[in-house]
């Protein structure tokens, strides 16, 4: 048993994957000897050599495009985009090639590759360092999109993402990099493609992913004082969405709130809310509500507390779920 | 020949394109051997017939669209025949002829343009990546594959095509730079056909030649007469060999001309005068080889007739793709959502059939 934070768990996942499979290569900006701006690739170049973990020129489209070619040749590249907004230059490669190559070639060319994207706010970053960009990727068929909400899942999800035969957008909630947990590695959680009930409750389901899992757990504690028994579902996998786990929870509680950092309009929560409404309509006591960022560009440090979902706002939203005493 | 030798100090490309066979069909440099010259000639003749046939198929409604490479056969064929068996080719949408020259069945190269699927051949069977539509995005793919091969210690080189317009794209820059930094065994072959749909080269780049761009990335650049198949073949062969043996990437610019419209649905009268093409017709790559070798297209007429008849027969068959296949290749294993959608489409089609 070791106490690790999420960055260390991700580092261990890369290390174990590279040890198990010589085809796994890691590259990107500052990921070599420096070890990555969030230390996720620390020590990999020293352990595996420069052919296995290396710095590339500073160009995200080139990084992803190069990874496509390497994957075509049978390697399993894991590339880092450094920050959410800095992945945008790679958007064409991701949407036009990474997502489409298997389909284009009728399954002849698979692209087993992982694009790691630290995302979200809450760290007092300057502009372009706080975006929640997941919906751009979940809207693109052919991509698998996952995001760990806990340190244990971070390890398991990254191992599974690297082993996946399909390209995976691996979104790392950067405000949770330093969350510590006791882990028995390399034991794995069964996190790929599956949501999990993080906390069992009877009255309302909070559906969360990434950084908001912890926020919702805190909310659930606070909700007890209000008399609400809150269930928390951690999606983990955004594409595919584990509808069974989500719907089972909502059918039990009859109420649901989706919580994410990104702007609400056309955000991932809209898809979850629509799915729940379609599949759980007769079980619902109230419309599915969403708590997310305002529809504004991600704000500067001094204002980000207003943008991020926090327990008070989530509790206020729960209160609007048409309870019988209202 | 001096200008095409590897030069550690990276001399600038010559202002005059490298030429081995001039417009009159006279040898003006060291030619490849007779066997190679004949195979270049044959492939160009068959290639032009293929181009003409494919355009004709668009008029018959058998192809949705065809971007012709008429006039550019020396580039398509010369660069591709320079590849060895283990090498890889990364073509663009205009390079169906290159894929055919590499051995991909003609009908399979046309799948994208016929519209029954987005790509029709197995890239691993021919070491030819799918025809790439988004400009210059195949550049980083070529670099990645080449880099992976180098990391594994495999001796091969990668040839990637792009057009003059594509050199304006960011991915061209990123690919050039990554290739140079990684010392990847890649040859970037820029087919400068002077036109990006309606935009002439003068509005695309102020570079002295597109080959000059190479110097800024720290690799050699070669400016070649792209209507001289012998020059294209020789320069690309040397560049590939240097790449294979660890000498790094290079850029080869083939100076040519897009005789046909961008595609069959483009109208050149809206942006260029018919006379613009005239000087280029006089430097036609096939005409030049007819003169050099003392034989004309008729030498390959029977073979071309046979190939085109086969192609027409294949293309006249109605391609039918089971709509179920829409859902099959999105992921290795279809997601539950995709399975549900496939079932919904099947049900919808069954109702249509019942009503019919």
Molecular structure report:
The complex is a heterodimer of chains A (326) and B (356). In chain A, 56% of the residues are buried. In chain A, helix 9 crosses helix 10. Chain A is α/β, with parallel strands linked by helices and 326 residues long. Helices cover 36% and strands 20% of the residues of chain A. In chain A, the strands form three sheets. In chain A, strands 3-2-4-5-7-6-12 form a seven-stranded mixed sheet, with helices on both faces. In chain A, strands 9-11-10-13-14 form a five-stranded mixed sheet, sandwiched between helices. Chain A has two domains: 182 residues, Thiamin diphosphate (ThDP)-binding fold, Pyr/PP domains (Rossmann fold); 124 residues, Rossmann fold, CATH 3.40.50. Chain A starts with a strand and ends in a 7-residue tail after the last helix. In chain A, helix 7 links the parallel strand 6 and strand 7. Chain B is of the alpha/beta class and 356 residues long. Chain B folds into two domains: 318 residues, Thiamin diphosphate (ThDP)-binding fold, Pyr/PP domains (Rossmann fold, 3-Layer(aba) Sandwich); 35 residues. Chain B is 42% helix and 9% strand. A five-stranded parallel sheet of chain B has the order 1-2-3-7-6, sandwiched between helices. A two-stranded antiparallel sheet of chain B has the order 4-5. The longest helix of chain B is centred in the first third of the chain and has 26 residues. Classes of the chains: A alpha/beta (326), B alpha/beta (356).
